[in-house]
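Q: I'm teaching a short session on how sequence maps to structure, and I want students to see two examples side by side rather than one. Could you give me a first protein with its sequence written out and its structure tokens following it? Keep the formatting plain so it prints cleanly on a handout.
A: Of course. Example one:
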Amino acid sequence: MAQIYVLEDDVNIQEIEMYALTASSFSVRAFSTAAAFREALHERKPDLLVLDLMLPDADGYDIVQEMRSDPSYSKIPILMVTARGSEMDKVRGLDLGADDYLAKPFGIMELISRVKAILRRTSPADSDSGLCRAGSILMDDEKHEVRVDGRPVELTFKEYSLLKLLMDNAGRVQTREEILDKVWNTDFAGESRTLDMHIRSLRKKLGNAGAQIRTLRNVGYILDDVTRPQ
């Protein structure tokens, strides 16, 4: 049974989320403050965090950033549920490393659907941990590190997720729709500019190795020359 932590200071919304998740056979613990959540996090790591951004003792964005920068908690999936529904709020949260974003007010069925979708994507059975090499690019998924010709490359959480998707599907075209669905959990065509921006940034950070990411016009992207160390 998946363990889900809910960090939400609004008692009514917290109760609704707990009821819906428990009724869907999830084990749930709820917290009203970041301090209580952090204490519980040291006791047991959840399989997913449902996070409100506006908390009495912390900013939800800071919590996302803290977790993504700590190797002990960096792989815990995060679903942000918040009243901040603007595009910029959404982009900021996703770029910091949240796996999905649900704006209030929301439907219970949509909440459960998004939770299940995140857990499917991040299930250990589906993950491909370890080393993966693409020409001069080396990805160590256990350490969440990328190196080019031995040089460490600092990537944002989304840039890393994008590169991992391309490396895991080396030699196979990933359509724009597939990438948006798997990395940003959306099929909204308007997000294409976000994808293009991340591809440009990723290529730049990879240097000459960025040329291995090829554009198939009006289709998507493909990564060439991947080998896995024995």
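Q: Perfect. Now a second example for contrast.
A: Example two:
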Amino acid sequence: MKKTLIAAAVALIMVACNNQQGGNFKVTATMPDETTDGQTAYITNYDTGDTVAQAVIKDKVVVLEGKVDTTYMARLIVADNRMEFVVEPAEIAINLQEQKITGGKLNEAFAAIDADLGAISQEGGDNPEAMMAAEKKLIGRFYKAYEDNRDNGIGPWAFNYYLMYNDFNAQQLDSIINAAPERYRNLKRVKKAVAAANALVTTAVGQQFVDFTDAKGTKLSDFAGKGKYTLVDFWASWCGPCKREIPNIKGLYDKYKSKMNFVGVAVWDKPDDTNKAIKDLQIPWPVMQGEPNWTEPTDLYGINGIPHIMLIDPDGKIVARQLGGDLLVKTITDLNL
């Protein structure tokens, strides 16, 4: 499911703002405590990852300044903390302790809807059906945000998430991309979202599974397409919903391990953390692992949020994706193995 994305997303409302209004920006960020004093804070362009400003933190405060010709989404990065905001010609205050942003027309609008999106996220809970309903609400918000902000820095950000949340076919995707402003097509994150959407088309239910190999030479085809159904669990040690799904999978494993293949795929993680989680959670099935922050499997399958549980039939055809909770149990039970 895409719960990880839901928890991280920020909703948007209509903002009247000319993207071509240039000027200077000033960001004053307040840290939670003194532990970051002496460290460098960075502002990076959300799309490209390029550093646009940096300064040293002193007495829990850092001031970062620069020029902006066109508004764009950015991240304030302090150690392991990340906070998204809009770079616009304004004085902007960011409180990392409260996760609060004030100052600037776009940023105030961006922050105003955050609480509402948090409420939508909570509506999903751990119930697959409720999560799907929450996702539909988010899709509508992102599309409206894109439409209302096509010409400022929020638009491409919203468009990116709109693409990632939907399972478009190739024709739909082409139509949507062609209708977007031409400048969007050169944005790295939009290109990545398009690639993910295309991957979803090629790995949709009904398609043959796509093979990949982990750092030890283990292939997905060592399990899938071998005459048995195969459950594939894309997960990470840091992902709470992923870990909460493990007991559910264990119950199925105990019941069907002689009739099905089970394999985990650890993504977006550090091998040491993965191995610790395997031990702590007492995962009995094999887990494929790659280099730190391994993304190949999720790129191939267009996966933007984990856990993502997939079912492959004995001949290697994908029969279900985004399984979890009661829906996972019902899907496996209905196989009548």
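Q: What should students look for in example two?
A: Point them to this: The radius of gyration is 22 Å. Also worth mentioning: Residues 229 and 313 are 5 Å apart (CA to CA).
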